[in-house]
Write a structure and sequence with these properties.
Layout lengths: L1 H6 L6 H4 L4 E5 L2 E4 L4 E4 L2 H4 L8 H12 L12 H15 L7 E4 L4 H16 L4 E4 L8 H5 L17 E4 L11 H10 L10 E4 L2 E2 L5 E2 L2 H13 L3 E5 L23 E4 L11 E4 L19 H11 L6 H23 L6 E5 L2 E5 L5 H11 L2 E2 L1 E3 L5 E4 L7 H30 L1
Helix pairs in contact: 4-10, 5-10, 11-13, 12-13
The protein binds pyridoxal-5'-phosphate.
Pyridoxal-5'-phosphate (PLP) binds next to helix 6.
């Protein structure tokens, strides 16, 4: 670890939570340099839905490199890009009756978000954008302006310009319909909220703590956007690519967003991001929004291969099946440890255990790591243990990982009980 501590910036994060030097990875396993094997319930924060070094993807990449397929091509036409676009249209868009143009942005999620916000502002000629409490959209300045958690923001960045934050579904309690609140703000010229160009939203907030918006809420949000001529941007960077059991997370609500940001697993584990937009919104002039790394052909090759998982219904079925196992096993954990007052939230293969006891979730993650499971935290105060395994995880590995979490919670409770008794005697 010496070189990391000496040379790498203090900004480094995950290396502190998971202090090992990793070397090899396959499927849902990661191995460190001492050859210790870890189960991965983090999946590259949602970038590895198809697992580490997925054999189909690796094979396609090796073949492409061996035949000297072009790797960097700016946004020139390439065979790899052609194949990706064709596959995306045939496998994802057409069967879902969706009509979107594809814009290749810089290769990270926040690049796609920046692009969406900029385009919305350009098309609508309005600067304001509305986002939601606990939303996470990335950390470059435009994305940061619509990200909720103040851990990432500082007033001195001046990043809150032209963005308003309003309550997400459930933020004011289950009985309050926050769309009514938003409608009131939009209809009242004295609310202090300007008519926005766009509303940007995650259908399930990932970093924000696994908050699942209801179908009705999403439908009402779409209707509200139509009513006020506001563009609806679904940020599907973490919840897209099958995480919720559908390729796009908004499919469960049957809505049709104006724009969709997609990144993370779209590149099959390699950096890639796209913005999907209704064709009439594609008002860019050639080269008006550019970037050097929009033509990562290795990612196109990987992405095309990854999309073959969506050829039939089997993959979506498997996600639903494994998601049900997760829900069932996690519900057992909630019931087994009532003193912790855990709340379980999630859908598909993304779940969170919200443990209100101060610092306990962090202890669970650390204890799991000691027992060779990598699992991350989410939520405003890192109070949610976040389950984000690869969608391709084998059932027995999934169950093994869930059992490690169960044991970690039990052991931690036992230890704190022993400590309490120790103090008393
Ligand atoms: C919903 C959402 N949007 C945007 C981002 C930013 O993506 P990136 O970290 O690749 O910039 C993330 C990252 O976690 C995300 O979850």
């Amino acid at each position: 670890m010496r070189i990391f501590e000496e040379l790498e910036s203090e900004v480094r994060g995950y290396v502190r939570a998971f202090p090992a030097v990793f070397d090899v990875a396959k499927g849902s396993y990661i191995y460190d340099e001492q050859d210790n094997r870890y189960i991965d319930f983090f999946a590259g924060a949602g970038s590895l839905n198809y697992g580490h070094n997925n054999p189909l993807i690796s094979k396609a990449l090796i073949e492409y490199l061996q035949r000297d397929g072009i790797v960097h091509a700016l946004d020139k036409a390439t065979v790899a890009k052609k194949n990706f676009l064709q596959k995306f249209q045939d496998t994802i868009l057409t069967p879902r009756n969706l009509n979107y143009k594809v814009q290749f942005t810089g290769p990270t999620g926040t690049n796609a978000v920046e692009t969406a916000l900029k385009l919305a502002r350009m098309v609508k000629r309005r600067s304001n954008v509305i986002a939601f409490t606990n939303g996470y959209h990335g950390l470059t300045m435009g994305s940061l302006a619509v990200t909720g958690n103040d851990f990432y923001r500082d007033e001195s960045y001046g990043a809150r310009n032209n963005a308003d934050s309003v309550p997400y579904d459930g933020y004011l309690g289950r009985d309050v319909n926050t769309i009514d609140y938003l409608r009131k703000f939009l209809s009242d010229g004295s609310s202090g909220v300007d008519l926005p160009a766009a509303i940007i939203v995650e259908t399930v907030q990932g970093e924000g703590g696994i908050n699942v918006a209801s179908v009705e809420w999403l439908q009402e949000l779409e209707a509200l956007c139509r009513e006020y001529d506001i563009l609806l941007i679904i940020d599907d960077i973490q919840m897209g690519n099958g995480r919720t059991g559908y390729f796009f997370s908004f499919e469960r609500a049957g809505i049709k967003p104006d724009m969709i940001t997609v990144s993370k697993s779209i590149g099959g584990g390699l950096p890639m991001a796209i913005l999907l937009m209704r064709p009439e919104l594609d008002q860019w002039r050639p080269g008006e929004h550019t970037g050097t790394f929009r033509g990562n052909n290795l990612a196109f090759v990987a992405a095309t291969e990854a999309l073959s998982y969506w050829d039939g219904e089997d993959f979506a079925e498997a996600i639903k099946y494994k998601g049900a196992i997760m829900e069932e096993e996690l519900r057992k954990i909630v019931e087994k440890y009532p003193s912790l007052e855990i709340e379980l939230r999630g859908t598909g293969m993304v779940w969170g255990l919200d443990i209100p006891r101060n610092g306990f979730s962090g202890d669970v993650s650390a204890e799991c790591f000691a027992n060779k499971l990598i699992i991350e935290l989410a939520g405003a105060d890192d109070q949610v243990v976040k389950f984000l395994p690869a969608l391709t995880i084998e059932e027995d590995v999934l169950r093994e990982g869930l059992a490690i979490v169960d044991k970690a919670i039990g052991d931690l409770l036992q230890r704190s009980e022993d400590a309490r008794k120790g103090v008393m005697t």
